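[audit] Reproducing an earlier prediction to check determinism. Same input, same settings, fresh worker. If the tokens differ from the archived copy the diff job will pick it up downstream; this log only records the rerun itself.
[audit] input (111 residues):
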Amino acid sequence: MSKKIYLKDFVIIRCIVERGEAQKLFEAAQNVGALAATIYFARGTGIREKMGLLGIVVEPEKEVIEVAAPKDLADHIFDVMVDTGKLNLPGKGFIYMTEAIKALTYVPHED
């Protein structure tokens, strides 16, 4: 039986963006040290009606990207994703970071 290697000292950065935008955010994050990502589709509700008052069309179809990042690189990765996705502009998305307390996956060992 293989040895269990628990992963610690990393965070999950989760970002909800317009459909078709997640891949470029992941590539930008990967270029500055992101370890892995999961991208999936979602449907947004609620904010679309309020944003419409500003004359901004917000489509309900979304992509969610979850990026595993080492704690020491997390703030930089986060900022790169914000800049790449222009997430500081209205209707472009939502991003947040949470601590991963403990995780496990297969990690190949060097012989």
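[audit] rerun output stored. Observation attached for the diff report: Residues 6-104 form a domain with the Alpha-Beta Plaits fold (CATH 3.30.70.120).
[audit] end
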